[in-house]
């Protein structure tokens, strides 16, 4: 039976940490409503103690949405947890996401502390957050570089303290997919009562492996994925929501599913890109401008014979109206003929040969040949006029 993956969206927290991407409370409410319509299970709405604006945004998002759990980030500190609980007071279902570093690098160089003290503080934070009457998620920051036995000890201790969800972040995007997956498997094999909590994966993209690591974590038992729209986030970004949702949808063999309404993906990607003034790279999987564009002759010919030759996703499944055939100097006769037919021309084989030679001259000059260029091309080709 297919198992549900909870989608935890952190566009408004980890995503919004990107310099220049800050949103106003009103803009965040618009995004939160769209995330709700998209079908995410959890919205991480902000880090309330970090600024009055973030505090207010968590309050207003809590009022604005009803289905998703609203989550607020804290450090493992009393003031952070008090302020987060206050900001979540209107949430139908609220969650405090608290945690602390788990790698020796963080323990030594960030906290100047010891494993024992860090463990104690983490357990205390979970117990204290739990006393606020909300769900509690614990993050073991920099889990990707933590000593595995210590990480297991930490996960076991916070579950015993009442954590509902335990997040295993690859904070620095360091892990390789098979090794990140092995970390999750190790926790399932070695942590007592691990099934009392949901294990969550939160991966960064410093080596371009965030999505691969997330999928590896899910294949090894994690049941929540922490993601952002367009993969925005600190440095090279977070795991992108649209990639995880579509991998799970395309690969039925994984036996996993999400509640994401995939046909809304392109719309929300555009919304985030516009509001955050953060362009989506053209070759971005799923939502990039070229994700369903075919430009080389061999591909265009195959695509025109049957879209399945070169597409594993129907563009309308992710809200892109249609695939496109881009005419360039690499295009073949089949694509040129197709576009001419769409414009109402019916060139004979001989006409097409002549047109194609002229087309290549224009394409070498112009890079992309558009419909206006084609109309001019036909007008200037005596054989057809
Ligand atoms: O990357 C990370 O470790 C985080 C935590 C705060 C969850 O964003
Ligand atoms: Zn993060």
UniProtKB/TrEMBL annotation:
One of its GO terms (molecular function) is 2-isopropylmalate synthase activity. GO terms for biological process: L-leucine biosynthetic process. It is an enzyme of class 2 (transferase). Its EC number is 2.3.3.13. It comes from the Bacteria. Residues 5-266 form the Pyruvate carboxyltransferase domain. Keywords: Acyltransferase, Amino-acid biosynthesis, Branched-chain amino acid biosynthesis, Leucine biosynthesis, Manganese, Transferase. The keyword rRNA processing does not apply. PROSITE patterns: AIPM_HOMOCIT_SYNTH_1, AIPM_HOMOCIT_SYNTH_2, PYR_CT. Pathway: Amino-acid biosynthesis; L-leucine biosynthesis; L-leucine from 3-methyl-2-oxobutanoate: step 1/4. SUPFAM superfamilies: Aldolase (SSF51569). Pfam families: HCS_D2 (PF22617), HMGL-like (PF00682). The keyword Acyltransferase applies. InterPro entries: 2-IPM_HCS-like, AIPM/Hcit_synth_CS, Aldolase_TIM, LeuA/HCS_post-cat, PYR_CT. Belongs to the alpha-IPM synthase/homocitrate synthase family. LeuA type 1 subfamily. This is 2-isopropylmalate synthase. The lineage of its organism: Bacteria, Pseudomonadati, Bacteroidota, Cytophagia, Cytophagales.
């Amino acid at each position: 039976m297919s198992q549900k993956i909870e989608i935890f969206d952190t566009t408004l927290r980890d995503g919004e940490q990107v310099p220049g991407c800050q949103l106003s409370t009103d803009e965040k409410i618009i995004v939160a409503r769209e995330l709700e319509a998209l079908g995410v299970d959890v919205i991480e709405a902000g880090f309330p103690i970090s600024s009055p604006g973030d505090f207010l945004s968590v309050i207003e998002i809590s009022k604005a949405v009803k289905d998703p759990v609203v989550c607020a980030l804290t450090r493992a500190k009393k003031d952070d947890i008090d302020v987060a609980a206050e900001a979540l007071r209107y949430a139908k279902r609220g969650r405090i996401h608290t945690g602390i570093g788990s790698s020796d690098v963080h323990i030594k160089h960030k906290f100047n502390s010891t494993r024992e003290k860090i463990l104690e503080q983490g357990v205390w934070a979970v117990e204290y957050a739990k006393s606020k009457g909300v769900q509690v998620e614990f993050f073991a920051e920099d889990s990707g570089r933590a000593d595995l036995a210590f990480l297991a000890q930490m996960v076991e201790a916070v579950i015993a303290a009442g954590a509902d969800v335990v997040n295993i972040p690859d904070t620095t995007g360091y892990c390789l997919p098979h090794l990140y997956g092995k970390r999750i498997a190790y926790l399932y094999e070695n942590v007592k009562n691990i099934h009392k909590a949901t294990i969550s994966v939160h991966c960064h993209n410093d080596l371009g492996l965030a999505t691969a690591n997330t999928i590896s974590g899910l294949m090894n038992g994690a049941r929540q994925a922490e993601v952002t729209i367009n993969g925005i986030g600190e440095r090279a970004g977070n795991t992108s929501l649209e990639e995880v949702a579509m991998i799970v949808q395309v690969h039925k063999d994984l036996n996993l599913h999400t509640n994401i309404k995939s046909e809304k993906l392109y719309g929300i990607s555009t919304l985030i890109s516009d509001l955050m003034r953060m362009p989506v790279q053209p070759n971005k999987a799923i939502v990039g401008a070229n994700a369903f564009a075919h430009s080389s002759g061999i591909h265009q010919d195959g695509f025109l014979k049957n879209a399945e030759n070169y597409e594993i996703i129907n563009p309308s499944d992710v809200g892109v109206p249609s695939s496109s055939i881009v005419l360039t100097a690499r295009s073949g006769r089949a694509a040129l003929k197709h576009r001419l037919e769409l414009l109402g021309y019916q060139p004979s084989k001989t006409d097409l040969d002549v047109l194609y030679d002229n087309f290549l001259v224009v394409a070498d000059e112009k890079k992309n040949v558009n419909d206006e260029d084609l109309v001019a091309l036909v007008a200037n080709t005596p054989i057809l006029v």
